[in-house]
Amino acid sequence: MKAVADKLTSLANDELDVGLQNLYGRSAFNRYYYCIFLVTRDLLREYKVEWSKSKHKQIPDILVVTFKKELIKEVKKTLRHNLVTESEASKAITQIRTSTAELSSLLIEAYDARCIADYEPEVLLNNLDKNLLLGEYKLNTASTWPSKAQSYCKSIRRILKDYALV
Amino acid sequence: MDDLQDYLKETNVSFFEKIRLRKSDDTIILSVDRSKVAAKATSDMTSERQLSNLKQKISSKFNTNVEIIFTVNKAHYEMEAGFHQILNHKFGQKIITFFLSFISDNKINVMLELDSIHPEIKKDISDSLQTLFDESGFSINNIFWIDSSPFNLPTNIELLRLIKDYQPISALNIIEKLTAQYEIIDIKWLNRKLDLLRKKGFVIRQSENGTFVLTMEALSLIPAGTRRTSSDITRALAMGKMKW
User: Closest residue of B to A148, CA-based?
Assistant: First the structure.
C-alpha cells in the first residue's frame, strides 16, 4: 500500500498537468490513510480478533479508550504481584498512553485528509512552492504517516510481548 | 456553524485554529495547535481533559460527531528532521527512526529506534539528546526506545507464560524455547531468574525431576481469555503436541 502511495506521490510531484496532478495527489492521500489504517487494524486484531471488524471511525476511540485501559490494567496487575518494578511499570504506562494517543491522532488526521481527497472534489490540490497541499494537509507529511504508525505499533507490540498479552 | 461559533464565544473558548464541517459524514472538525495544549487548562491554553469534555459537550448540544485534530507548526517538523540528522551524523547513521511528539510547546516525548546491533550507545544518545534539547529550550518528558533487538531478555511475566504453556518444563527446555527469540540467554541467567520466581512463590521446582510448574498465584495473574493468542489456548495447543 505504501509503495503505491509513494509512486502516486512521485507522479504527482513530477506532473505538469494540474488536473492529473490533482488526481494523483489525492489518490496518494487515500492510499497513505489506508496504509496506516491496515497497520493499526492488524495490531488490534492480534490482541482481540473482534476488533478487526471495527469501523474506520471507531478505531481511534478503541485505541485511546478500551485498548489503553486494558493494557494499563494488565501492567498494574503485574506491578501488584511484584513482577516488575514501579519504574518499569510507570514507563510502560507512559509508553502505552503516548503511543495509543499518537496513533489515534494520526488516524483521525489521516482519515480527515482521506475524506477530503475522496468526497470533496471541489477542494483541489494546491502546489505551494513545490509542496503539494490538500486543504491543510501536505503530501510530504502524509508520506511519513506509514513509518510513524508502524513505529507506534511496534512500541505497543513490545508492551504486549513484555506483559505476555499476545 | 454560526451557532457553534457563538457557543464557543459564550464559553470563552478561543484556542481552536480552525472550525469546519466535514460534509461527507457531518462531522465538526476542530483544529488546535499542539502548542496550545498544556497539562492544565488556563485562560489561553487548553488541556487534553478540557478538549475531551468540550468534544462531548459540542457533540450532544449540536447532535453531531466531533473530531479534534492536533496541528503541529512547521518549525516543529523542521526541528524533528534537524535533530535526526545531527544525531545520525554523530552516531554513524545508527538511528533508523526518530520522532518527536509535542506534549506542549516546550515539552517533548522522543521515540527512537536503533539498528539492533548497537544497544550500548543508548546512554550516549540520551545524553546528547538531553544537551541538544536543553540548549534549544525544550525539556524531554520521556524517551521511548522502539526495540526489537535480540539482545533483550525476556520479562518475568513472559517466562511465567512460557512455563504455563509447557509445564512441567526443565530449565534446559526453557532455554531451548527462548533461544529462537533471544540470542544471549544463558543457563546461569535463567537459573537466577527461576530461583527468584520460586522465592516469590510463582513457580515450584519439582524435586523428583527438577522441572518447573506454576503456583496458583502465578496462574491467576497470567493474562488469559478466549482470544486466539490467549495463554489458555496456547497451553491447550502445546499439550496436544506433548509426548507423555
Answer: B99
Per-residue model confidence as pLDDT tens digits over B6-65: 888 888 888 898 999 998 999 999 999 887 887 788 877 888 889 999 999 999 999 999
Where helices occur in chain A by DSSP H, the ranges are 2-14, 18-47, 59-62, 68-80, 86-119, 139-142, 145-162
Q: CB distance from A42 to chain B under 8 Å? A: no
Residue span of the structural domain in which A33 resides: 2-162
Domains of chain B with bracketed CATH? 2-71 (3.30.300), 74-145 (3.30.300), 156-241 (1.10.10.10)
Q: How many domains does chain A have?
A: 1
* B15 close to B32: Cβ distance less than 8 angstroms: yes
pTM of the model: 0.87
**Cβ-proximal residues to B236 (8 Å cutoff; 6+ apart), any chain:** none
State how far residue A57 is from chain B, nearest Cα, in angstroms: 10
Q: Distance between CA A29 and CA A137 in Å, rounded?
A: 9
Task: Count the neighbouring beta carbons within 10 Å of the beta carbon of residue A49.
Answer: 13
Judge if ipTM > 0.95: no
CA B56-B57-B58 angle, to 5 degrees, is 95
Tally of CB atoms within 10 A around A66: 14
Reading the block at residue B121, the C-alpha cell is: 550507545
- Non-local CB neighbours of A91 within 8 Å, separated by 6+ positions: B142
Chain A residues touching B69 at Cβ < 8 A: 105, 108-109, 112
